[in-house]
Amino acid sequence: MPGLDAGGRGGDANGFAAFGHVTEGMDVVKKIYDSPVSPTKGDAAMKGQMLDPPVKILHAERVK
């Protein structure tokens, strides 16, 4: 996911290694990704990267 690469969505030099596979509901993932962020919420490196309003995840599961 390029937005999590260093210099991605936040424009900083920090990257994030994320591992997973969406089996259904990719439209929801894209809506969350496009959600607005707060310029003031979050601490340290997370400041300015917190979704506002936050998104509540109702269900996630590990599949084999």
Give the spatial strand order of the biggest sheet: 1-2
Low-confidence stretches: none
Q: Spell out the helices and strands N to C.
A: HEE
What is the average of the pLDDT values? 83
Quaternary structure type: single chain
Rounded to the nearest angstrom, the radius of gyration is: 13 Å
List keywords for this structure.
about 60 residues; two-stranded antiparallel sheet; little secondary structure; 1 helix; about 10% helix
SSE blueprint:
Layout lengths: L25 H8 L3 E2 L11 E2 L13
Antiparallel strand pairs: 1-2
Structure description:
By secondary structure, the chain is largely without helices or strands. It contains 1 helix and 2 strands, in the order H-E-E. A two-stranded antiparallel ribbon has the order 1-2. The longest helix is centred in the middle third of the chain and has 8 residues, at 26-33. It is globular and about 35 Å long.
Compose a concise summary of this entry.
With 64 residues, the chain is low in regular secondary structure. It has one helix at residues 26-33; strands at residues 37-38, 50-51.
